[in-house]
């Protein structure tokens, strides 16, 4: 539960500071949003990049936590998480009369979860690192037409990476993740693995990019770049998802 709540607090700060419009997140976390400006800008980029994949179709959201994208963006979704998180989410949605047509909740342990139906879009936003195995990723790689969107901290041996993972460990989270090179060779027909620094460089452009950068300007932008270079966005595609990748603005330069 704490994991879902801490992510929701960070996303709440995104809404409070004007990065995104989200009138729903405060139903799920009562306290103020948390995080510093660089984390918040990073959350914005992660939310925005993932949402750009939603036109691909109905989504299976693994470890959905208290993410509110179903209410903000619409579409159809199946959200999976641990029983305590799903029960709380269902209960809060009911208490606040949030729309649930088109939304299915599944209580499951993702270490042993096998989806009953196959949604074309699978979202795993900061989830795989907490699992003990890659079973669900292996299952997804066998689907014919599928886009798996993965956001993760990247394994790295540099000083910043070591401190970052030590800090997760202090909070009791011993993350199991991969390097960028390991993500890039997932067994799908096409895989794009980008650092969040690259995603930010490509997404934070134009009028919207200027608006976002102006919300909480940094004294030292290189610190933001360093932080973002330790997170990755991976798009793993089979079948009809392969040409869909060409429609994503942050992949146009590849
Ligand atoms: C860091 S949070 C991310 C939440 C959401 N994806 C987001 O970005 O807003 C990780 C989520 O994965 C869920 N999770 C971790 N391990 C899980 C497991 N074995 N089975 C089901 N859910 C799990 C947690 O409950 C939590 O909601």
Automatic annotation (TrEMBL):
InterPro entries: LCMT1, Ppm1/Ppm2/Tcmp, SAM-dependent_MTases_sf. S-adenosyl-L-methionine binds at residues 46, 63, 109-110, 125. It comes from the Eukaryota. It is an enzyme of class 2 (transferase). Its EC number is 2.1.1.233. It catalyses: [phosphatase 2A protein]-C-terminal L-leucine + S-adenosyl-L-methionine = [phosphatase 2A protein]-C-terminal L-leucine methyl ester + S-adenosyl-L-homocysteine. GO terms for molecular function: protein C-terminal leucine carboxyl O-methyltransferase activity. This is Leucine carboxyl methyltransferase 1.
């Amino acid at each position: 539960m704490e994991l879902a709540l801490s992510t929701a607090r960070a996303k709440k700060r995104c809404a409070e500071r004007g990065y995104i419009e989200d009138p729903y997140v405060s139903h799920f976390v009562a306290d103020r949003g948390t995080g510093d400006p660089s984390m918040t800008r990073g959350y914005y980029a992660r939310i925005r990049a993932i949402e750009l994949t939603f036109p691909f179709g109905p989504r299976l959201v693994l470890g959905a936590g208290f993410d509110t994208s179903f209410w903000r963006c619409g579409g159809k979704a199946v959200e999976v998480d641990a029983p305590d998180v799903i029960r709380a989410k269902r209960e809060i949605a009911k208490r606040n009369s949030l729309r649930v047509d088109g939304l299915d909740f599944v209580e499951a342990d993702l270490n042993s979860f096998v989806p009953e139906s196959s949604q074309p879009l699978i979202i795993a936003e900061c989830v795989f690192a907490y699992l003990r195995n890659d079973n669900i990723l292996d299952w997804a790689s066998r689907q014919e037409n599928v886009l798996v969107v993965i956001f993760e901290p990247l394994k790295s041996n540099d000083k910043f990476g070591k401190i970052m993972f030590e800090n997760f460990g202090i909070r009791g989270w011993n993350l199991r993740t991969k390097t960028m090179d390991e993500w890039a060779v997932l067994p799908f027909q096409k895989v794009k693995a980008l650092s969040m620094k690259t995603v930010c460089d490509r997404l934070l452009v134009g009028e919207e990019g200027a608006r976002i950068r102006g919300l909480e300007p940094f004294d030292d932008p290189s610190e933001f770049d360093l932080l973002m270079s330790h997170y990755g966005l991976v798009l793993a595609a089979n079948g009809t998802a392969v040409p869909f990748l060409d429609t994503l603005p942050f992949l146009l330069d590849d």
